[in-house]
Amino acid sequence: MVTGACKGLEAGIAHPRAADGARVQPDSRRWFALGVLLLGTLLPPLDFFIVNVALPVIRSDFQASSDLAQLVVSVYATAYAVTLILGGRLGDLYGRKRVYLGGMVGFGLASALCGLAPSPEVLIAGRLLQGITAAIMAPQSLALIHATFPAEEKNRALGLYGATFGLASVSGQVLGGVLIEASPFGLGWRSIFLINLPIILCALPAALVLLRESRTNQGARLDVIGACLLAAGLLALVVPLVEGPRLAWPWWSVPLLLLSGVLLWLFWRYEQRKEGVGEMPLVLPSLLAAARLRRSLLATFLFYALASFFLIFAVYQQAGLGHGALAAGWAILPLGVGFLCGPLCSPRIAQRLGTRTASLGMALEVTGLVLVAALAGSPAWLPVPLLLIGLGQGIALPALVRLNADQVAPSLAGLAAGLMNATLQISAALSVALLGGLFFLLAPDGAPAATVRFAFSLTSLAIAGALALAAGLSWQRTSDAND
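Structure tokens predicted for MFS family permease (483 residues):
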């Protein structure tokens, strides 16, 4: 059990070469348990992607404004990003299996509320609850994988974990379209939320039987003040990043961003004081004092600059090439296929390259982005570099997960999962705001197709630059580990 100030870094930080999985007593049912955990990994991103295709129908059904319809997406993303670190810490303190089951039940109830919503306001409230419960559930999946699998099997398990994200990105919009077109039982768009209920009803008894409890810090209490300060700080940061581009950066966006800096500084000082007097903070400052962990989190942050690519690619396809929305959706499919296949290759590559696997994956992404930028005027060739981007992303993601987790003691696996997932979500919001903003600055509404193609090429190169930095950071991290 980690107590007090953790007696320095050694209590919270694992040596990069430490085989944390070696201490795990393998469960003979662990691969069946992994299937249950991957359902908890699949549902949060699936419910993000699946809603996009349903927005026009939802808006028409409720006769809602476009701003209200967009809140259906943004309120989920905001709640998810803000709650992830707290969700991971809850699992460390109160039991990861217990919190996972509670999060899944809550996600099911929130899905039912969305599916039965009589008004857009109730739907938005349901999406808010979906985001919160998804953030409680998601970090437990990753923490339980680390607690369940020995070191020699962890790369394979994490490869399947990464493939689940690829499956969500590929299947989300396709499944949404199928459900809306088929309209089972006359439910229409409501079926995209209610489909979660039979999945969860099957997963819950399996989780009760197959998952072993994993818990640390027994007797420690939740840092409520720290949790409130962190939630307020992240909320003040994420809301302007998510809503600012949609609302043309209203006056309140800058004050909120400044307030987020103040709140996060107060949170950090409070956590330092709490750790200094021997109490258990929400996030251990001594943990983030480790250069290796900071570097791997920064690499993770830069890695997800790719989130903005999905936005600019859709606009490029329609405004730059004159394709319809359906054709634009199919055009991104090679990237999704690569993202699905990449994690399946990652374990074998990791056996040879170790943590440098992340650098290799990001190098493939950089190559693909440079080719996409060069071929923006020749769309017939785009599937090849798109496949390369997806393959690289799929190879890099599981390696980055392992890279971050290896810096943290197993007792803090939930916190590590929450930190990494929150880093990804905040990076996505920031990259869409900044790199998406660059794209629209270069190609405002009504710009000629050639201008849109130029803006797409330049922004793709900017994303490639961020990924090149991330590849360098993760490669440097490996060099340090070998010292």
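The chain has 19 helices and no strands.
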